[in-house]
Amino acid sequence: MLRRLLPTLLALGCGLLALGWGLVTLQRIFTQEREDARAQVHSRSAALELLAAEALRTALAQRMKDHLPALNAAMGDPLQPAEGYYLLFRGHQFLPRVDWLRDGTDTPAKAAYERLVQALEDGDAPAPWQERLARLRAVDAAMATGSNARISAAVEALLRHHAVHPLPTDQELPFTLIAVEHLQRGDETPPLIRALVGEGLPEELGGMARGAGLQRDLLRARPRLTRDDFDFLQERIVALSLELGEPSDAFQARVREAGAGALVLPDSLKGPSIFGEQWYVEPGAEQVRGLAVDLTVLLADLTRDLRARGLLLKDSEVRLRPAGVVRPLSDPGLEVAMPGWAKAEADIEARYGLKTLLVAVCGALASAIAALAVVAQQRKYRFVELKSDFVSTVSHELRTPLASIRLLGETLERRLGRSPEAGDYPTRIVRAAEGLHFLVENILSFNRIDKGRWALRPSRVRLEEAVGTLRDDLLDAVQVPVELRSEVDDVELDADASLVRMLFANLGRNACLYNQRSPVVLTVRAYPQPGFGATVLFSDNGMGIPPEEWERVFDDFYRLTTTGPEVHGSGLGLALCRRIMGLHQGSIQIASSSEEGTTFALTFPETRR
Fold this sequence. Notes:
Elements: H1 2-76, E1 85-89, E2 92-95, H2 108-122, H3 130-145, H4 148-164, H5 169-183, H6 191-195, H7 214-220, H8 227-244, H9 249-257, E3 273-275, E4 279-283, E5 287-292, H10 295-308, E6 317-320, E7 326-328, E8 334-337, H11 339-415, H12 425-450, E9 458-462, H13 463-477, E10 482-487, E11 492-496, H14 497-513, E12 520-529, E13 533-540, H15 573-583, E14 587-594, E15 597-604
Parallel strand pairs: 10-12
Antiparallel strand pairs: 1-2, 1-5, 3-4, 3-7, 4-5, 6-8, 9-11, 12-13, 13-15, 14-15
Helix pairs in contact: 1-10, 1-11, 2-5, 3-4, 5-8, 11-12, 12-15, 13-14, 14-15
Catalytic activity: ATP + protein L-histidine = ADP + protein N-phospho-L-histidine
Protein name: histidine kinase
GO molecular function: kinase activity
């Protein structure tokens, strides 16, 4: 068998190898197509992200340029707002302002203020303030005369001495505060005295170095004052500003703003960066400038701009990817979220999955076709072998009775009149002819049923009559004594009488052939089955059938291998019995089998009443 299948297996193997190579190549093409499509989508995304990053860099640089005057103003003037600005110059942070108060509970400025007040009342001034208090009294005397020229000259003399002979902060601020309090006359206060509160002195009177105004001087002196001193001076300066009508809102706002906290940046910034997603910083040679930004608003504006230019769809947006605290603007980590791209990638994967599935299905179908071809070829050769075996068996079976008939006929012709032993020759001739007839009838009936050309002719068949017919058939067909027992009562079947006779005849002849006992005992029992019909048990006392052969004995041309004398037969008996039961919509199977005999169970459908 294997030698016959070898050419087919070689051809199928070569075909499968060629097909496999083609499918693998096709799968590689599909994979490359997927990668190319994904790369195209990703390249579009990367191009938009580069464009968005460049637009963000431009927007932040322009915003820094717009805010640079305000940042420089906040650096030079402590009354200017500094919130949202950052300036680090030579390692010292100027903005946001981190002027924390000096630790301690002493109040030298308050004590100096109280001593100066007492000195003005007593006329006895300590050494540091003798000249200052003298000039202050001169201004007071000039103001009493009402001469503007004398007042201006006295005030200028006081302020020039104040600029040329500076005192420590905890002494300078109390003296300036007392001077303004002592000389203020409401709306008639001299302009230079009023300038000591808010605007500061002009440059020719030392305004750049000293006398920038009490409000500014107090803010600059903050790190050198304790909390008690600072609060004392602040309250006096605010009250004085209100009396003179000088604005103090900016001063009070800067008091609350000062010491808000330091912004700690990494040691090395290699270019403009976003820090903590809240600050935009630009490092320079000696300084680092920064600007507080709202990235959410910036990215929203950037998204609207790209939509207006037709580069983004309505449901798309520019957003930040998760990253560290510092984001260099060279690569800020922007991401363009476009649902259409996600859908495109999903479609790419879906198409790739479908193509892969088709390749797998083609491979599976090719394998299945190859397997079916091998099975079909194997069945073909098996059928040829069965056909050959059948022809050989039938030829042998036909040759034997024909030879017997011929030999017995010739012998009968020569000796019938002269030998008494020839008296049973006619019986033996009839028996051989009957065996030949039964074999031919089995073959013809099997062929007609197998081809679907048997027209079933159902009628009422009494089992008792069918058993009687079997007794007559066996009496003429077998040479061994047969004891036939019947327990069928009056059970009737709705069946084809000729087929029932052929069914029982095949079961009976098989029982006689595969039996080494004498007599052969056959038992037929019938059991009506309510709602179905009847079950007929056909038992013998033969040699039995091994359990593994119970189903195979019903195969076409299958002959049971037995020990002892050779058993002749065509291998069609039980196969024909199963086809007869199938034609009646019934079944036949081996109920039990042992060395004591075999019992076949025949189930017939319900009879008509």
